Amino acid sequence: MTLEAQARGALKRGDLPAAAAAAKALAESCPDQPAGYFLLGMAAAEAGQIAKAVPLIRAAVERGPQAEYLAQLAKLLILLRREGEAADAAHRAMALQPGDALTLDTIGCVLTRLGDHVASLAPFEAAVALEPDNLEYRYNLAAASGFTAKVDEARAHYEAILAADTGNARAHYALAILARQTMQANHVSRLQTALAAAERPEDALRIRYALAKELEDIGEADDAFHHLSTANAAHKRAIRYDFRHDAAIFDAIEALYGKRLETLASGTGNPDAAPIFVVGMPRTGTTLVDRILSSHPEVASAGELQAMPLAVKQMAGTASRVVIDPETIAASGGVDPTAIGDAYMARADHQRPKGTPRFVDKLPANFLYIGHIVRSLPHARIVCLRRNPMDTVWSNYKNLFASQSAYYAYSYDLMDTARYYQRFDGLMALWERLCPGRVLQLGYEALVHDQETETRRLLDHCGLFWDPACLAFHENRAAVATPSAAQVRRKLNSEGIGRWKTHEDGMAGVRAFFEAEGIPVD
């Protein structure tokens, strides 16, 4: 057996010391050949040593730029948040016309992480063609199909997965949210069977969310609430969430900005006027406004970029492993705003679509960074979506966000979500006091009730000329990778207004809290 075969075999069975030893011997015996360096890099990556792995795989690419090497390099660069380099490596890998399914799927996953869902279709389709029984590859293709409005294709792939694996929780959940279910066509019975058989807590979580969504679709509100509350309570226990974590972040922002913006580090900021930030609590219409704006000929959507949180973290230079924490917020106050603006634009440039002068960054959590945006990008426009607080809480509670994301950890408890909304509301009031008129606070209900007037107000705030295409946002064919995908492909309607009232008894504590805090709920 050759040294390369030994190293690959050891990697496959998880014997990292043996893999590293064989790869090192190969690199030393054939220093001009790429395989040893690549396999050494893969052993380091499997051990979690990503920063060590990257230069080794780069050394392999320099000696022989194979698609497999470039795809794995791109994957590691994504993990290091080096999106521009990752994109370059992924495109180089695809150009080499890879012939193995793993490399193709890896390229597709990198493109997905970069927000290029349309481009991800080709490698995913090729991977499934080569290995049709690989359910992971088929799931990735199904998700990309759903993101790009290929709903029938997505449904067929999810059903194929469930035919092979009846308990596949990810496929069950994805099918439930792909479209609205009806009394005549739903998966409730199948989901109940899958839930009874679920052994892992993460599977039960997804299946209960799927059941809740479908039961609500068909009017079974009480059963929907039961499954949601059961799933959320279990997940909150599992992640050990404590609202004090988020409260400390709000406290730190208010401490930093609660005096006056002028008292912070001086700097002119980056003058680029291209970004339009769409912010707010999740599930309040941010995707809808993103679609409206990106229907304009001068605007394209870049999706939910991490560029601002990462730029602030990078410039603050704090050692913590999380992107946002009180220490990072405090340290960011002493950073030259121009440096943050430059870092943001450099990161955003790798993911913003080309061909339009403006782009939308619709990361909802950027409302935490409005102070940074105002100072570091003085010509950027900011739009904050506001929705009835009761509907906001209910919509956050009933949607399964990235289950390990710290951004949405509050959403597994109704009262935590209400408290989070109260702090969000207070922070938006602070921004309005500090920089009046800088943020357009756009009401979801107002937009639904008077679409043209509010759309004109939105475009005017963003410095865009009127274009009637913005009223036909549902005809926008760009990819959507959020739970709102099905809704924003339909005409604007009022179905989402007052939905919390279906669960009025369960929401009574939230209502009492808001009334005590002086937050109007009607």
Automatic annotation (TrEMBL):
The lineage of its organism: Bacteria, Pseudomonadati, Pseudomonadota, Alphaproteobacteria, Sphingomonadales. SMART domains: TPR (SM00028). The keyword Transmembrane does not apply. Keywords: TPR repeat, Transferase. It holds the Pfam family Sulfotransfer_3. TPR repeats lie at residues 101-134. It comes from the Bacteria. This is Sulfotransferase.
